[in-house]
Amino acid sequence: MKALVKTKPGFGNLELLDRPIPSPNSNEVKIKVHYAGICGTDVHTYEGHYKVNFPVTLGHEFSGEIVEIGDNVQNFKIGDRVTSETTFYICGECEYCQTKDYNLCNHRKGLGTQQNGGFTKYLVARADSVHTLPDNVSYRAAAMTEPLACAYHAVSKIKVSQGDIAVVMGPGPIGLLVAQVVKSKGATVIITGLDNDQERLDKAKALHLDHVVNIQHNDLKQYVDNITNGYGANIVLECSGAVPAAKQGLDILRKKGAYVQVGIFKDSEIPFDLDKIIQKEIRVVGSRSQKPADWEPSLQLLSSGAVNAETLVTTELDISQWEEGYQHIKGGVGIKVLLRPID
Q1: Are 119 and 58 in contact (CB under 8 A)?
Q2: Cβ-based neighbours of 79, under 8 Å, separated by 6 or more
Q3: Global pTM value
Q4: Is cis: bond before 147, omega within 30 of 0?
Q5: How far apart are CA 285 and CA 280, in angstroms?
Q6: Across the chain, where does the E strand assignment appear?
Q7: Positions in the chain whose pLDDT score sits under 50
Q8: How does strand 211-214 pair with strand 188-193?
Q9: Helix (H) or strand (E) holding 20
Q10: With 0-12 CB in 10 A as exposed, 13-18 as middle and 19+ as buried, what is 237?
């Protein structure tokens, strides 16, 4: 079968290769991939900024159907429509594994990074990570369950109350999903972007988010102050990984507000205004990936229509068209690219 394989470190080195069709072990299932989404992590890996095990088939956002099950698997059958958590291996012994915070296990191995992922026709996943799709959730939408679970995980880090003013910095795929999740919890959402985010800001309007603000043409602090009688936002979720956005996020928060860092910065060390955190008693929390508890609520958000993930897909390509998908994302025009397997 054909697979998109990162063969060695550095920029590029992503090759369309023939790989053997895998077979599941006793506690695994084999999934025929229908769609796999290109994630920012895949882009970083392609560019040589993210470490993976070489060689490895990329792709950790996917949907498909079960075509083979291991001897010990009881909860699934051939033909089930599914998606899977990215977790393929955990130590099962550390404190984080005991609480199912698998995203924090030091020994965790993930699909598409340390284990072959979804940019191919077939993959194997551990049965404990697999989730059945609701009948009304399409394969296209389900391929975005993983980023939605990341968004759900970020929002779960804080308390969201009815009527809270929540600012989402950055209208990329994660930002648009985070905004929909926080809105589903009763918050009034302000999502921000720049001139080169115009298509994404238009999508935010189409999703009926409460306030869509181009901060190159509007003073965001004044905008937030006008809405909040000068108090500032209750919540800021920074999804862009841009230093100016992080600084602005702290500035527009009210006293006792909550700040969630979702986006990943290019450099691990950045200047941060600790004085604002102290003087306003701001709560700052990070959010890393997702964990098992985030998946079923995410699928229910898709099923209920509270989150529309499928509308974020701006192009579909075959895995042989990686370069076109990469340029679509890097150009800033597209939102989400789904890849299809080839024979």
Answers
A1: yes
A2: 65, 66
A3: 0.97
A4: no
A5: 15
A6: 2-6, 14-18, 28-37, 56-57, 61-69, 81-84, 87-89, 109-110, 122-126, 130-132, 165-169, 188-193, 211-214, 233-238, 253-261, 283-286, 313-318, 336-340
A7: none
A8: parallel
A9: none
A10: buried
DSSP-assigned letters across all residues of 25-61? -TTEEEEEEEEEEPPHHHHHHHTT-S--PSSEE---E
Express each pLDDT in 56-98 by its tens digit: 999 999 999 999 999 999 999 999 999 999 999 999 999 999 9
Type of residue numbered 111: L
Alpha-carbon span 86 to 329, nearest angstrom: 22
Q: Which residue bears the tokens 């191919």?
A: 120
Structure confidence by residue, pLDDT tens digits, 26-48: 999 999 999 999 999 999 999 99
The residue written with tokens 């977790």 in the block is 87
Instruction: Please tell me whether residue 93 adopts helix, strand or coil conformation.
Output: coil
- What pLDDT score does 51 carry? 87
Determine the distance from the C-alpha atom of residue 40 to the mean position of all C-alpha atoms in its chain, rounded to a whole number: 8
Q: Rounded to whole angstroms, how far apart are CA atoms 82 and 168?
A: 30
Cα–Cα distance, 38 to 322 (Å, whole number) = 9
Residues in the chain, overall count? 343
Chain mean position to CA 110 = 14
Residues 127, 73: contact at Cβ < 8 Å?
Answer: yes
- What residues contact 51, with CB distance under 8 A and at least 6 apart? 9
Q: Which residues pair with 214 in a beta bridge?
A: 193
> What are 224's two structure tokens?
């937030």
